[in-house]
Amino acid sequence: MANTRLPSAGFSITIRIAVPADASSIGRLTTAAGEAGAIVTALDVVDSDPAHVIVDLTCDTADSNHADQVVDALTALDGVDVRKVSDRTFLLHLGGKIEVSSKVALRTRDELSRAYTPGVARVCQAIAENPADARRLTIKRNTVAVVSDGSAVLGLGNLGPAASLPVMEGKAALFKRFGGVDAWPVVLDTQDTDEIVQIVKAIAPAYGGINLEDIAAPRCFEIEARLREALDIPVFHDDQHGTAICVLAALTNALRVVGKQLSDVRVVVSGAGAAGTAIMKLLLRQGVGDIIAYDRQGALHRGLPDLNPAWQWLAENTNKENYSGDLPGAIRGADVFIGVSAPNLLTGEDIAGMAKDAIVFALANPDPEVDPREARKHAAVVATGRSDQPNQINNVLAFPGVFRGMLDAHAEEFTEEMAIAAARAIADVVGEDKINPTVIVPSVFDSRVAPAVAAAVRAAAQNPATTPPPAADPGPADLPEIAANASATP
């Protein structure tokens, strides 16, 4: 039976198969794989003899179980001998994805004497006399620590530091590929807030910035706030601010497509963790009409008991009509749905109940909150976090350029002005004359994105007074920093 989920390159497999040497054999393979719900991406002949042909069939599947179903379908064909199945994602990770590469050749004694002893002692003394020179004379100038405790790895939960390492390696690779930033994973075998803060403070002298990653809410708010207070380098929690920047950029263009103003729309956000909280804060700063936050406790509303401080703040500062029902009810009549939560929470019929020209950002990965194929039947603009769907909202649009700009500006902190500038830069890369319902954000491989974001962030860092203000800033008294009030309790 064909799989109903969406195949993805993240579950790509290569199957080595021996088939009879006749004209129909290879066609039977591709047909069987397709009928099993796979997407065939390559077929290579690797060997042959008078009776057999050995082929490598590569295809995308939806998950591990689906991959097994595809293999079983091929094995059931007459005359087919499945010899080996390789998971291409695991093959890519063998030995890790990053390495250290020296910028100095060290081919002669002369080079060794300058790069290391005795010449290096002079550089050490210079930095001791003027610590600011570390940014100029060491890797601090271009290096970021990607720090995680493994407590909220992707959408998989608390997997711990070792299991988080492949994600942090990938993040470091993206930093280099898209921003020219040297980043290194720092995974910590503790989930104690005080210990994490102390460790990051202790390692900070080697880095020009700290990227916090996959740390569970609400602890992530306190960790970020305390590190910002203690360090003279930018501290950026990508799950919060990177996501918020990309969502604001995408929503800016989506609203242009449907001809609505942010101040007039009602937004429902499913998921009030790190990403959802940051998204809502940025939208509130930009003057959104109203927001309903929805999480495990239901719709966050005034009077809801046993809320942590971050959720309590959201309950008091969103949801003007104090809605307390379920998620399908919350989106009824809403203009925008933003999901940063869990898969399959909504149906196409739920989306049909939204306002005319609705916007749906279903960003849970790998499976979104609503099937994008169903959502597109009813919503004007649909986006996901998936690379195999139109309008992929991916943090790689933001964080490489944000850090590139902060490092170039020798910034000492990440600011909201930088976030707004970055979001506008991403949106403007598309261009108002190019946007349409299937193109509201640029491709992650668009070479214009990171330089545009870096330039915007650099300008915001160097001349914050010239950064355009938010559309409607409620002011510090009405919109306190959540991080300052968040609990350290997981």
Automatic annotation (TrEMBL):
<dbReference type="InterPro" id="IPR045213">
    <property type="entry name" value="Malic_NAD-bd_bact_type"/>
</dbReference>
<protein>
    <submittedName>
        <fullName>Malate dehydrogenase (Oxaloacetate-decarboxylating)</fullName>
    </submittedName>
</protein>
<feature type="domain" description="Malic enzyme NAD-binding">
    <location>
        <begin position="240"/>
        <end position="462"/>
    </location>
</feature>
<keyword id="KW-0560">Oxidoreductase</keyword>
<feature type="region of interest" description="Disordered">
    <location>
        <begin position="460"/>
        <end position="490"/>
    </location>
</feature>
<dbReference type="GO" id="GO:0016616">
    <property type="term" value="F:oxidoreductase activity, acting on the CH-OH group of donors, NAD or NADP as acceptor"/>
</dbReference>
<feature type="domain" description="Malic enzyme N-terminal">
    <location>
        <begin position="95"/>
        <end position="228"/>
    </location>
</feature>
<dbReference type="InterPro" id="IPR051674">
    <property type="entry name" value="Malate_Decarboxylase"/>
</dbReference>
<dbReference type="InterPro" id="IPR012302">
    <property type="entry name" value="Malic_NAD-bd"/>
</dbReference>
<dbReference type="Pfam" id="PF00390">
    <property type="entry name" value="malic"/>
</dbReference>
<dbReference type="InterPro" id="IPR012301">
    <property type="entry name" value="Malic_N_dom"/>
</dbReference>
<dbReference type="InterPro" id="IPR037062">
    <property type="entry name" value="Malic_N_dom_sf"/>
</dbReference>
<dbReference type="Pfam" id="PF03949">
    <property type="entry name" value="Malic_M"/>
</dbReference>
<dbReference type="GO" id="GO:0051287">
    <property type="term" value="F:NAD binding"/>
</dbReference>
<dbReference type="GO" id="GO:0004470">
    <property type="term" value="F:malic enzyme activity"/>
</dbReference>
<dbReference type="InterPro" id="IPR046346">
    <property type="entry name" value="Aminoacid_DH-like_N_sf"/>
</dbReference>
<dbReference type="InterPro" id="IPR036291">
    <property type="entry name" value="NAD(P)-bd_dom_sf"/>
</dbReference>
